[in-house]
Specification:
The complex is a heterodimer. Chain A is of the alpha+beta class. Chain A is built from 2 helices and 6 strands, in the order E-H-E-E-E-E-H-E. In chain B, helix 10 packs antiparallel against helix 11 and helix 10 packs across helix 12. The chains are: A alpha+beta, B mainly alpha. At the A-B interface, strand 3 and strand 4 of A face helix 10 and helix 12 of B.
Amino acid sequence: MKLITAIVKPFKLDDVKDALKAAGVMGITVSEVRGFGRQGGHSETYRGAEYKIDFVPKVRLELVVDDGSVDAVIAAIKASAATGKIGDGKIWVAEVSRLIRIRTGEEGPDAI
Amino acid sequence: MITRSSSDVVQYDTSSDYFPDLTRKRTSLLRRLLIATTISSGALVFTGSIALAAEGDFDAEGAINSLATATNLLWVIIGASLVIFMQAGFALVETGFCRAKHAAHVMTTNFAIFGLGFIGFFFIGFPLAFGGFSYSAFGLNAPIGSPLLGSGEWVFLFKGGWALSGGGITPALLGFFLYMVAFMDTVATIPTGSMAERWKWGSFVTWGFFCGAIYYPLFAAWTWGGGWLSQTWSSMSLGAGYVDFAGSGVVHAVGGIAAFAGAKVLGPRIGKFAKDGTPRAMPGHHIPMAMLGTLILLFGWFGFNAASTFAATDVQFAVVATNTAIAAAFGAIVAMFWIIKRSGKPDPGMMANGMLAGLVAITAPCAFVAPWAAAVIGSIAAILVIESVFFVERKLKLDDPVGAISVHGVGGLFGVLCVGVFSNGSYGAGWNLSDSAGVEGIIKGDWGQLGAQVLGVAVLIVVIGGVAYTFFKLQDTISKKMGKGGIRSREEDEIMGLDLPEMGVAAYPEFVKS
């Protein structure tokens, strides 16, 4: 089992969700986050005084999938979240050692 | 002096052995009233002769006069209601442009100032300013009091009707009080913007009483109340004396100057300026709130300006209302283009400030100028206000979260001068009881009026500015001597946000935000 975490542009969330559903994903956890990468924030002016937005608003998606689905899920996120412009985000994959469904007590891939 | 006899015929009384009771008399209006009354009473007498033939003694002219007076008083009360609603506009603008952690504090200063200023004005402020005022168009036939300090052309304060008590309390007087209390509250609430996010509650409360009781009444007595500045047409041969139709000076500049003095004594918010003095932006937490507040102020301003004719029978109110709207529209849009040129985007705060500056600037000249002049005044005010915001922040290193100093102070002083520049002589005959045939600015080749306006501006800056600065400085010094730490909030409270430490309640408890 793998945990796939993706940081994407907020306005792309709906596209990514649709793509993941189409790829057969059963559940996603979404949080609103702020941060910076190579993009490094940007400047705005308020009443003529410049200020820097260091942390740009982003959306973080987390989902656990079985090993066989990882490539398909990554492909779906890549295709749906891309705009080609700086700040499109990142995807990373981590090993999951245990997974439990609270209601039934099922463990492992059955709990996905 | 003009009085009305019991038969409601306007009579001119040339005796001037006591202070004139009609300090804002407009002979043109009264002449119009008379003509209108004569024509319409002719019509009424005709129909009346059929309907009321049996009674025979129907006094048509008297009936029409009373109806006109009652309608005019209604106009004053409608105006007062609109101006009081402007308190909501101020509250939304100031709170929107401040940060979330101070929102309950800023909003509540705007709420409380209505009553604080009101109480000061109720007890002593109103008599000090308007004890010598009367205007028969809406039924205030004689002043409730008389001069307290000074006499003749040199009156500085008035007396009479303390706490709205005594024999002269008529519906007309109370209606006039209500209108004037609304103007006073506008003054009182202006500094809450420039001093927001760091003004200790207790110090603010003292300001509210002081503003209503003494600060606002000073300049009001010298101008609208019939005091020395209004009589400079006679004492110094300056135009029609100091002319300020609805209060660019009497209200906005007086408030803006207090906003300046208060911000100076308080100092900037923590973190506003970098160590090298570069100003940092502190974006307001609720721009839609501030924009809604601006539109509410625009709405209320029609009461502020148009109802300042004190008479619905004086159709100049339509000119006033339209000039007011013209200046607001040009102010907002010129500000939009100017801030795009200066910083790249149509900053909503600057557009709001531009509209308000246009409104503030047109307030003094609105009855005396042509529509083209209202457009010019609104446009110049918009550019002035943006440059002034930059100047106040970058050069003076003052922190004014909402732009109150620039909008009301700079816009107000500019509006006062505009009377002496753009007035076209079509209105204001007999203003300040002068022999003027109409207020004329330099576009009509008359420099005397501008002289009176410049004198007014000088008095505002030097005398009223001195009073405001002395008040805040003295209050701060006394508070520090008493070990109460001055008029500024405690540092840790300011950093945490004034909502919880000073008010005991957060504006937005569901949202945890730094």
